[in-house]
Write a structure and sequence with these properties.
81 residues, alpha+beta, two-stranded antiparallel ribbon, 1 helix, 2 strands, 44% helix, elongated
């Protein structure tokens, strides 16, 4: 279903079943609102716990990335002095 295409340093995944992107403005519909539909709220505690765990994992990854960038910045600023 997905095909991997290599770009110099990054991997790009292309879905063969995806429809080509069409902008609503290109179709002549004028100003289009991009409001998202509201999702149904779930009352299932298992699903909610899974969502919280998923968010925690994303937050931890972002914090690690932030620390890495701060180290690089500190090294660059320290080396420049």
């Amino acid at each position: 279903m997905y095909r991997e295409a290599l770009n110099k340093t990054t991997k790009v995944y292309i879905c063969h079943n995806a429809a080509p992107y069409k902008s609503k403005k290109m179709e002549g519909e004028g100003n289009v609102s991009h409001a998202k539909k509201e999702k149904e709220k779930t009352n299932d505690p298992v699903k909610l716990r899974m969502k919280v765990e998923k968010l925690d994992a994303k937050i931890d990854a972002l914090k690690a990335k932030k620390e890495e960038i701060i180290k690089q910045l500190y090294d660059l600023e320290g080396a420049g002095s």
